[in-house]
């Protein structure tokens, strides 16, 4: 069984089939891209994997455990980190606290040990701060570590969201349109970051509209269209697939 | 010629700056103060609180500060739930009442020492909070406000109607003074140190909480629940924890209130009281632990002054609240300090600006 395997997943909203019997597999350490026209069901698939929503039928396995019916926080505790299509950083905290809150599942301590500020809490807080600063340094955000996250420019907030997902040391990282709204220089920086994260051994599943970027960083690409998986394979193979070309052309026509 | 004179520092600016500087000593720093550990400023607050009743040894002032301390304890617990976790509760007066009645019933009927009843009050409030919290915390926003409001009303009805148990509308009288190992807190001055001592303990606990993992989880839940659960934060659980903790604080406050007033009756825990506590949290500044304490002192003081004007007191009170909310929407402490920092910065850079360097 693959590292993450999705088996015949179906999900409908009020009569619309967002996903229709989709099966997919991710190998450990690979980078997989998921593309498709608007409304193809890409984000729905991510919501199902991360447990924000539940599928109507089908099963999802991660590390050979079934996670289909698990709660969102239990799934992330197994090691699935994610970013959101619409930016979801915590604007009411400082930049460094955003990262430290991302470490939540690795930090010990309950209500009373934190409230009494016991020695091991003091120690783990210190270590967490140090580690958070290292993560910020690698993202180039260290200069702003004490400012409020809401005061960062959009591109940096996107990076911060990525940093927060990294802070939980995920085994699988789900990136939902990480490059949307970024300038081309920011995009280049981001794809460099993502490739580097992939080289460190994190499995990455990425939804993206910028073809150039996905083709560049992904080892394998899957294409969704109208809730169905229409192609899967290497970037070059997918690019030449007539069905994919047709799906994209059709959706372009209807868009226009 | 006139313009240069306008830019010069005038001696009377001093009269604006000195009071502002004094306020800045009292007021918390904007935004980030709660992120850090304890500071010298906290020592300053502690000194003021310890010395104030000795310098101003007026028993009316002492009594007022005892009440302010009790309200502040309640507001502190509510601020964890409202200001940090971003939820709303209009039922905390009920937990205050549960605390007060637990102490009242245990001490008058079963002659249990007040010190034990004090802890039992926190426990009973926390247990009831965890029972109702499980179901109502699934609600959000207005719905949560209404559900907690409903809980508060139900509590009042139960207290009024179960005459045998709670004394009905008349309530319970003759609750003994708070005492620990034979030392009785029977004067206003002693009660002052008791309530503010308890408040300090709870404040230190809360402050440690908000600068640790738990505090970050609360803030995360307030900003985005999806993002919070995406990093492994158990959202329903952390909400319940903060709700129960707030209820336990309220229970302790209620117990102290019963001991200080030596009576417990349903009038004290009505909807008006809930609104008062919520106002203390909002006026003091949300997402800040110093705010609710400042708000509690301010509102207790305002109510006391207005009580001289009898029938006009409520309208005046309303107008004051509206004005405060219009001019200090982020709380009293925060706004003053932002203004002050701006003023000092403006003044400090004036020379450079005049020389054309800025």
Key descriptive features of the protein:
heterodimer, A: 256 residues, alpha/beta, Rossmann fold, 6-stranded mixed beta sheet, 4-stranded antiparallel beta sheet, 10 helices, 41% helix, 23% strand, B: 358 residues, mainly alpha, ABC transporter involved in vitamin B12 uptake, BtuC, two-stranded antiparallel ribbon
What does this structure look like?
The complex is a heterodimer of chains A (256) and B (358). Chain A has 256 residues and is an alpha/beta fold. Chain A has two domains: 1-79 and 170-256, 3-Layer(aba) Sandwich (Rossmann fold); 89-169, no CATH class. Helix content of chain A is 41%, strand content 23%. Chain A has helices at residues 42-49, 72-77, 95-102, 111-115, 119-139, 154-167, 184-199, 211-217, 235-240, 242-255; strands at residues 4-13, 16-26, 31-35, 57-62, 65-66, 80-82, 172-176, 203-207, 220-225, 228-233. In chain A, a hairpin with a 2-residue loop joins strand 9 (220-225) and strand 10 (228-233). In chain A, helix 3 (95-102) crosses helix 5 (119-139). The radius of gyration of chain A is 19 Å and the shape is globular. The relative contact order of chain A is 0.18. The mean pLDDT of chain A is 87. Chain B has 358 residues and is mainly alpha-helical. Chain B has one domain (13-350): ABC transporter involved in vitamin B12 uptake, BtuC (Orthogonal Bundle). In chain B, 73% of the residues lie in helices and 2% in strands. Chain B has helices spanning 2-7, 13-26, 40-55, 59-84, 92-109, 114-136, 141-161, 163-166, 188-210, 213-223, 225-230, 235-261, 271-284, 290-306, 313-327, 332-348, 350-354, and strands at 172-173, 179-180, 183-184, 263-264. In chain B, the strands form two sheets. A two-stranded antiparallel sheet of chain B has the order 1-4. Chain B has a two-stranded antiparallel sheet with strand order 2-3. Chain B is globular. Chain B starts with a helix and ends with a helix. The relative contact order of chain B is 0.17. At the A-B interface, helix 2, helix 3, helix 4 and helix 6 of A face helix 9, helix 10, helix 11 and helix 12 of B.
């Amino acid at each position: 069984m693959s590292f993450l395997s999705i088996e015949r997943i179906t999900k409908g909203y009020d009569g619309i089939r967002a996903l229709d019997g989709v099966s997919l597999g991710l190998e450990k350490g690979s980078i997989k891209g998921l593309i498709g026209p608007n409304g193809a069901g890409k984000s729905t698939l991510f919501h199902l994997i991360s447990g924000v929503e539940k599928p109507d039928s089908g099963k999802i396995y991660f590390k050979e455990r079934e996670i289909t019916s698990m709660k969102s926080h239990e799934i992330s505790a197994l090691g699935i980190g994610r970013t959101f299509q619409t930016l979801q950083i915590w604007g009411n905290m400082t930049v460094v606290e955003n990262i430290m809150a991302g470490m939540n599942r690795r930090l010990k301590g309950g209500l009373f040990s934190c409230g009494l500020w016991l020695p091991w809490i003091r120690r783990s807080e210190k270590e967490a701060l140090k580690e958070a600063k290292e993560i910020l340094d690698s993202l180039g955000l260290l200069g702003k570590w004490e400012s409020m996250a809401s005061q960062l420019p959009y591109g940096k907030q996107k990076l911060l969201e990525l940093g927060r997902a990294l802070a939980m040391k995920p085994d699988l990282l789900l990136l939902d349109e990480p490059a949307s709204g970024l300038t081309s220089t920011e995009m280049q920086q981001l794809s460099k970051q993502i490739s580097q994260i992939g080289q460190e051994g994190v499995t990455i599943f990425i939804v993206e509209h910028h073809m150039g970027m996905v083709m560049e960083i992904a080892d394998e690409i899957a294409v969704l269209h109208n809730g169905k998986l229409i192609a899967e394979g290497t970037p070059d193979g997918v690019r030449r697939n007539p069905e994919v070309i047709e799906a994209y052309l059709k959706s372009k026509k209807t868009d226009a | 010629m006139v313009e240069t004179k306008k830019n010069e520092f005038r001696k009377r600016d001093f009269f604006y700056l000195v009071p502002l500087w004094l306020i800045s000593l009292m007021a918390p720093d904007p935004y980030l103060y709660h992120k850090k550990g304890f500071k010298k400023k906290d020592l300053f607050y502690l000194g003021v609180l310890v010395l104030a009743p000795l310098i101003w040894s007026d028993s009316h002032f002492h009594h007022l500060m005892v009440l302010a301390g009790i309200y502040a304890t309640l507001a502190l617990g509510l601020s964890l739930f409202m200001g940090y976790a971003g939820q709303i509760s209009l039922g905390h007066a009920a937990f205050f009442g549960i605390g007060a009645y637990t102490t009242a019933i245990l001490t008058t009927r079963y002659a249990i020492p007040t010190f034990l009843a004090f802890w039992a009050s926190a426990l009973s409030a926390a247990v009831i909070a965890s029972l109702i919290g499980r179901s109502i915390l699934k609600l959000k926003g207005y719905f949560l406000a209404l559900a907690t409001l409903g809980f508060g009303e139900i509590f009042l009805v139960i207290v009024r109607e179960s005459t045998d148990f709670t004394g009905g509308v008349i309530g319970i009288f003759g609750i003994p003074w708070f005492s620990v190992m034979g030392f009785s807190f029977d004067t206003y001055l002693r009660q002052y140190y008791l309530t503010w001592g308890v408040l300090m303990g709870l404040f230190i606990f809360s402050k440690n909480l908000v600068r640790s993992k738990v505090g970050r989880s609360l803030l995360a839940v307030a900003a985005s629940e999806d993002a919070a659960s995406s990093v492994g934060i158990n959202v329903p659980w952390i909400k319940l924890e903060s709700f129960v903790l707030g209820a336990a604080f309220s229970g302790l406050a209620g117990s102290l209130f019963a001991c200080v007033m030596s009576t417990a009756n349903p009038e004290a825990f009505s909807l008006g009281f809930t609104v008062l506590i919520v106002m203390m949290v909002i006026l003091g500044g949300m997402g800040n632990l110093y705010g609710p304490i400042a708000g509690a002192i301010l509102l207790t003081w305002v109510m006391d002054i207005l009580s001289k004007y009898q029938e006009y007191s409520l309208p005046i009170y309303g107008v004051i609240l509206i004005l405060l909310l219009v001019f200090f929407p982020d709380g009293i402490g925060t706004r003053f300090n932002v203004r002050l920092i701006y003023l000092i910065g403006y003044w400090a850079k004036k020379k450079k600006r005049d020389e054309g360097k800025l």
